[in-house]
Write a structure and sequence with these properties.
There is one protein chain. This protein folds into 2 domains: about 1-100, Rna Polymerase Sigma Factor, Chain: A, CATH 1.10.1740; about 115-190, Arc Repressor Mutant, subunit A (Orthogonal Bundle), CATH 1.10.10.10. The chain is an all-alpha fold. About 70% of the residues lie in helices and about 0% in strands.
Length: about 190
C-alpha cells in the first residue's frame, strides 16, 4: 500500500504542520487498540495505559521527524512494540514481572462472570480456564515471539508490516511466529 494514500498518514502529516485536532483524531482512533495490544504484551492494564500514553507523547514530541515510509499503523506499532519490549525487559531486570490479568479486570479485582443465556455455567468456566491458560502460555513466550504473534494474529498485520514493526526480515517474522505457535501448542498440551 502506498503510505501517502493512508488517511492516518495524512493526519500525521497534518500533525507535523501543527494541527492539534489531527493528533486528537489519531489518538482517539488508535488508543484503545494500542492499550489492548500493550495489555496483552506487558500483562497489566494500568501499565499498558502508561505505555500507550508514553508512545503518543513520543509521537507528538517527535512529529517533526516523521517520514511516511509505511502505513501509519505499522509505524505506530513499531513504537508500541519497542516500548512494550523495553517495559518487559525492565520488569524482568527488576524481577517484578506480573502475569497478565484476565481481560476486563483491573489488577487485584475479582471478575464477575456473567453467563450468556445460551451457555451453561460449566461452559463459561471452562472457557474462562482456557483463556487463562492461553494468557499464561503467552506470558512464557520470549518477548520477540510474543510481539510477532500478537501483531500478526491479534492485530492482523501482514508479515511485512510485522517485520517493519520489529525491525527484522519477513523470514525472521515467520520463524518467530512458527516458534511461538509450536511453544504455545506444547505448553497448552501440557496443561
Amino acid at each position: 500500500m502506498n503510505p501517502e494514500g493512508d488517511p492516518d498518514v495524512q493526519l500525521m502529516l497534518a500533525v507535523q504542520r501543527g494541527d492539534d485536532s489531527a493528533f486528537r483524531q489519531l489518538f482517539e482512533k488508535h488508543i484503545a487498540a494500542v492499550v489492548g495490544f500493550a495489555t496483552q504484551f506487558v500483562g497489566v492494564r494500568a501499565r499498558a495505559e502508561e505505555v500507550a500514553q508514553q508512545v503518543f507523547l513520543q509521537i507528538y514530541r517527535t512529529r517533526a521527524q516523521y517520514r511516511p515510509r509505511a502505513r501509519f499503523t505499522t509505524w505506530l506499532y513499531r513504537m508500541v512494540t519497542n516500548a512494550c519490549l523495553s517495559e518487559v525487559r525492565r520488569a524482568e531486570y527488576h524481577g517484578r514481572f506480573v502475569p497478565i490479568a484476565p481481560s476486563g479486570e483491573a489488577e487485584g479485582e475479582m471478575a464477575v462472570v456473567v453467563d450468556p443465556p445460551t451457555r451453561s455455567t460449566e461452559d463459561a468456566l471452562l472457557s474462562r480456564e482456557a483463556m487463562d491458560r492461553m494468557r499464561a502460555a503467552l506470558d512464557q513466550l520470549p518477548a520477540q515471539q510474543r510481539a510477532a504473534l500478537l501483531l500478526a494474529r491479534v492485530e492482523g498485520m501482514s508479515y511485512e508490516e510485522v517485520a517493519t514493526s520489529l525491525s527484522c526480515s519477513v523470514s525472521a517474522v515467520k520463524s518467530l511466529i512458527h516458534r511461538a505457535t509450536v511453544t504455545l501448542r506444547d505448553v497448552l498440551r501440557e496443561t
